[in-house]
């Protein structure tokens, strides 16, 4: 329902920060921030430095520029929160080798899960995606 314009991640990161402020004010509960694709790139950028966020999840994290978008993910190199990255082995925007290289450079705690045969949208593999996230949340957060 937004009537705003795409801001290449700058305004969108601010949007995530406003959402985190609202969630904190309303619920005062621990937060996990999860995002998919572009939402992962901007969500994790806002969540990593935010002390209210306990852990982050990036699904289908885009690593290749598309159209007018390029994704700067250097902020992840200093993100010390628990991180789950989930991608498909056939993700057209996040090639496996690039994702594995990125994951190797990230500080602990971290976990990279590659869902065999899944594309960027996890078509036909949403059950595996859900189970992966649920298992990690139980393991890391204890929820």
Q: In the CATH hierarchy, what is the architecture at level 2? A: 3-Layer(aba) Sandwich
Sheet with most strands: 4 strands, parallel
| CATH topology assignment | Rossmann fold
Order of helices and strands: HEHEEHEH
Strand arrangement across the biggest beta sheet: 1-2-3-4
* Radius of gyration using CA atoms only: 15 Å
Q: Strand share of the residues?
A: 15-25%
CATH class: Alpha Beta
Mean of all residue-level pLDDT scores: 91
Uncertain parts = none
Number of strands: 4
Helix percent band: 25-40%
Number of domains: 1
Instruction: Compute the separation of the termini in Å.
Output: 32 Å
Helix/strand class:
alpha/beta
CATH superfamily: Alpha/Beta hydrolase fold, catalytic domain
Identify the overall geometry: globular
Number of helical segments with 4 or more residues? 4
Structural topology:
Layout: H1 10-27, E1 31-36, H2 38-47, E2 53-59, E3 83-88, H3 96-105, E4 110-115, H4 126-140
Parallel strand pairs: 1-2, 2-3, 3-4
